[in-house]
Amino acid sequence: MKRKLNEEGVPEEVRSAPSMKSGSKFETLQLDPRLMRGIQAQSWAEPTKVQLEAIPLAMEGKDILARSSTGTGKTAAYLLPVLEKILRSKTTSSQRQTTALILLPTRELAGQVAKVAESLVAFCGQDIRVENLARTEDGLVQRARLADFPDIVVSTPGAISTNLNNGALSPDHLAHLVIDEADLVMSYEYENDLENISKSSPKGVQCFLMSATLSSDLDFLKGLFCRNPVILELDDDEKDTGGVTQYVVRCKEDEKFLLVYTYFMLKTLKGKGIIFVGDIDRSYRLKLFLEQFGIKSAVLNSELPVASRLHIVEQFNKNLYEILIASDENEVLGNEGRKKKSHKENEQEEGVDEDAEKSKTSDPADAPVDDDQDGEKVTTNGKVTEKSGPPKKKRKGPKLDKDAGVSRGLDFRNIAYVLNFDLPTSSKSYTHRIGRTARAGQTGTAISFVVPKEHYRKHRPTTFPSTEHDEEVMAKIIASQEKKGKSIQPLKIDDKRLEPFRYRLADALRAVTRIAVREARVRELRIELLTSDKLKRHFEENPELKQQLRHDGELRAVRSQPHLKHVPDYLLPGGKQAAQDNVGFIGMGKSNENRIRKARMQNKARGKGKRPGGKNADPLKTFNAKGRGKK
């Protein structure tokens, strides 16, 4: 259903947003009974604040720009009115057309939103069909699914733009356009795709811009899609971040690993938790380190296939894993293959004096020294010299998924703690990270490791580039939290409790070499690719087997012992008869005859292995004193 236009063909201007009572139920929103049954199936007792404000305005056909934190119900705030309008339009027309597009920055978010939409329309029969185009599949498959004219298409802007260009997706009957996590969409370099979608969309399309922050990037989207939208800037009361107890631990670089090991061994951290690290190598280094002590964990990063990432999140929410190591490459330095923000840019965003920053980096002697690449320029003490030797080709790293994200938007449930193993580079990223815990009125803990500047690069094997600015970033985080009326408490290290565990640290870290990290990374990626591609159809046909697939197995190579594969008859229940009754798979050219017995029979026929003097001969009388020959 399109909005009402004025005489000049322009949507009517929206002046203000009416408010509703916070104690209202979903019945007051006058939704379709089938949607009400879907809401009840989700166990949603009451609408959230953003839902109470946005749904009535959306039903009037107005554009909405809403700022509300992650976990406050923004997804249902735009899904319910869109679904309601589609159901109402079905009463007047039975023709199936694509009328709604929902754009999200990452594949994981697209998959989660599609699942929520499908659960809400579970009692609508075939009246509403939802398609998720963010899945990695062939273009012909996408074209075939779009040819069926789904009512709602959920995807990233890149996939939508591609299908608009090749004619697989028709925007002629488009009535609703949603951009969720709009500020994050802009940070993923989707400007060209969004402009293409805007040009292809017909006039009068109702637009929803949902975001956790109101940044300057939203002005671009507002001018591109909206006309006089209602701006709903809601408080974060429902997020209940006051339930997060925040701590900061100042430690050395290698002590990060010691503290994590100690926390788990002493049961200081209980329940499910997310450990945020700087990059992908860092996540595998920490996983291999914990494996040496029998501590299992799962890794989540943008290098893994999208099907594996979604499956990891799904199983983590079902409590199959307790520890999830997440590498958030979009939030920290050391990002690979993605748009990066330097430390200087982050300081400028948060109001840091630019002149002060320039004074820090104006000296050419402070430039980084590159001693790993031959044939390149090296800066040392202000002088630029050419390195000798032939230039080496740069190795191409594995391709990362641009449409991946961890700290924003993903629906992690029942998180007891968040551990910032590597501190993010901005206070906004910190807020999004700790927002993974203490949701829906629960309590949680957030612990952040900070490396003082005097300890930076003092332990090379465990150093990480972004830790150089930990103290400056933490000062901004503390100031940002104090403005919200929250405090970050210092957590001191008890050396006496750490001392018994310290002697094992060096051996464990020494075993986790760069080669071991690289091999573990390749091995995990190979396993996940096999699971994601070749077994996808098998798991679709046998969903019960998918529950048995785990992602927290050990990555270390173990010694192969083939003899363990052979099970003797006497170990089987029922003895030899059971072995004969339960004959397993027998390969071509194989026989079930005992090969050892067969070899003995052949040797006996050849006269080998016979005792001199016959079976009953006395062995003491058959050898001479020197042990050679007969008497």
From TrEMBL:
Q: Name one GO cellular component term.
A: cytosol
- Could you identify this protein by its name? RNA helicase
Gene Ontology biological process terms in this record: gene expression; ribosome biogenesis
Q: Give the Basic and acidic residues compositional bias ranges.
A: 1-15
EC number assigned by the record: 3.6.4.13
Instruction: Give the matching PROSITE patterns.
Output: HELICASE_ATP_BIND_1, HELICASE_CTER, Q_MOTIF
CDD domains for the chain: DEADc_DDX56, SF2_C_DEAD
